[in-house]
Amino acid sequence: MMLILGGVYVNLRWLTTRRDPLLPQSPPSWLPTNPFIGLDALHLAAFVILIELIVSLSASLLLHTEIMDDDPITQISMLLEGIAIPIAAYVFIRFTLKHRGVTWRQAFTPVRRDASHIIRFGLHGFLAMLPITIAFSLAATVALHHMGLDVHAQPVIELLGDANFPTYLRISISLMALFTAPIVEELVFRGIALPGLMKHTSTTFAVIAVSAIFALIHFHLPSAPALFIIALACSIAYLKTGNILIPILMHATFNGTTLASLLIQGFE
Predict the structure, then answer these.
(1) pLDDT tens-digit series, residues 137-176
(2) Nearest-CA neighbor of 79 among 165, 153, 185, 187?
(3) Are 68 and 159 in contact (CB under 8 A)?
(4) Which of 67, 114, 215, 234 is the most buried (most CB within 10 A)?
(5) Using CA atoms in the order 221, 232, 107, 121, what is the torsion angle rounded to 10 degrees?
(6) Distance of alpha carbon 138 from alpha carbon 141, whole angstroms
(7) DSSP conformation class of 18
């Protein structure tokens, strides 16, 4: 509740003191130096899907040959995907940057920010998006209930809340949620897809499109509105600051808050 109230205060303060529009009316000055184009996001998506297919097919093969039971295979498959996808993204990004003669800093943090600014802006951004995210999540839950549809938490949330779920996997998934997922997803969606699409469309369309895709790829309808707001806030933060570390911090703090709430519920 304190975090929600803090978010409301940050939003009210921003609305009453800021004069600039929510989205920049013209592309940011650093956009022309960004090395990525729209096709890069599609190529990266195809590469990641290929890695996922290899992991899934390997797991299915082991299950088909009855070398291992279903539960261990599913758990190992989840762990391998969590390891393989970040590695695939890293290899793709590193190859692309090397091919185009651009450093990681030039590509993802074109505007230098000191650590205090990154932490301050990242935490303020997290607080600002929190009450809006919760409101959209509650609205989606109520709407789905009225439509007669069952509302379940995301599968990974249900697994973390399962007392029979292996501890090593619970720790692995928690670490991925805190570090791997925010870094990889922000690099891909905000660092590559967003500027790449902005070179072909308007800023507003690019932000909305990338945020919608981010929400849909999680394949969980009840969470889609909240995920869209998170992606929207991270996209705006990146365009405003020109530093990918800020949306990464926002994303990681949100995931950490979710994990903390699950942990508190487990003790109750």
Answers:
(1) 999 888 888 888 777 777 677 777 666 777 777 888 888 8
(2) 165
(3) no
(4) 234
(5) -130
(6) 5
(7) -
Sign of CA dihedral 181, 183, 189, 193: negative
CB atoms within 10 A of CB 166: 14
Contact yes or no for 93/41 (Cβ under 8 A): no
**What one-letter code names the amino acid at 10?**
V
Dist. CA 230–CA 207, nearest whole Å: 12
Q: Which residues fall within 8 angstroms of residue 214, CB to CB, at 6 or more apart?
A: 185, 189, 227, 228, 230, 231
Tokens of residue 14, six digits: 């921003």
Q: Which residues contact 115 (CB under 8 A, 6 or more apart)?
A: none
Rounded CA gap, 35 and 33, in Å? 6
26 or 98, greater pLDDT:
98
pLDDT digits (tens, 9 = 90+) for 186-195: 999 999 999 9
The count of other CB atoms within 10 Å of the CB of residue 153 is 14
